[in-house]
Structures are given as structure tokens and as C-alpha cells.
Design goal:
Helices cover 12% and strands 47% of the residues. By secondary structure, it is mainly β. The protein has one domain. The protein has a 7-stranded mixed beta sheet. Strand 5 and strand 6 form a beta hairpin. The radius of gyration is 15 Å and the shape is globular.
């Protein structure tokens, strides 16, 4: 899966999920992307649509609980929209490289 823009950084503000008027669930958070050692990081607003219905709302809510301040993320999008704050357009994928997800069937056998 390739994207035009890949942002690596940390979650600056805890993620939250919202539902639009049409029932679409959204996951929204800010990413602090480092620039140089002596400069302030660039803040980008990330918003990913999860779909409609209760399952989408549940999935967005569970993902929001995992994306707390300080978590490292890699976000893929198609472009950056200017404004305050900057917005990442059409987010296709959010990856958390440090997150460990245990196997569904219990601990792995040795």
C-alpha cells in the first residue's frame, strides 16, 4: 500500500472518535512530526473515516483508546491541506510500530 505522504511522529493530543450527521464514524488526533533538534515539531491533524453503523463506531472507539499522547505512529495519506492546523488528506493507513497485539488464541506456544 503506497501513499503520496507518509508522516512519522508521535500523538500530540489523545485521539477521539466522533459520528457525523450521516452516521459516519471518524477517528481524529494530532501528530507531532519532528523537524530538527532545535525547532518545534510540525502539528498535523489526522482524520480517518471508519464507515457507518455500530461496528464502525466501536472500531473507531477502540482505536481511539489505544492512540494516547506520546504513542509513535506512522500515518499514510494522499496530501497535506494548508490551514491551521495542517491536515493530512484522505488517510489510508495508521500504523503503531510499538503496539503489541496478543494472539487471539492466547499466548504463543514455544
Amino acid at each position: 500500500m503506497s501513499a503520496a505522504v507518509v508522516i512519522r511522529g508521535t500523538v500530540h493530543r489523545d485521539a477521539h472518535h466522533t459520528r457525523g450527521r450521516d452516521g459516519t464514524s471518524y477517528l481524529t488526533f494530532d501528530v507531532a512530526a519532528p523537524t530538527s533538534p532545535n525547532a518545534r515539531p510540525v502539528l498535523l491533524r489526522v482524520q480517518q473515516a471508519y464507515g457507518t453503523g455500530e461496528a464502525a463506531a466501536y472500531a473507531a472507539g477502540c482505536r481511539a483508546k489505544r492512540l494516547r499522547r506520546g504513542v509513535r505512529v506512522v500515518v499514510h495519506g494522499t496530501g497535506i491541506e494548508r490551514g491551521r492546523p495542517l491536515r493530512l488528506q484522505q488517510v489510508t493507513h495508521i500504523d503503531e510500530p510499538d503496539l503489541y497485539v496478543p494472539p487471539v488464541n492466547g499466548p504463543a506456544e514455544r
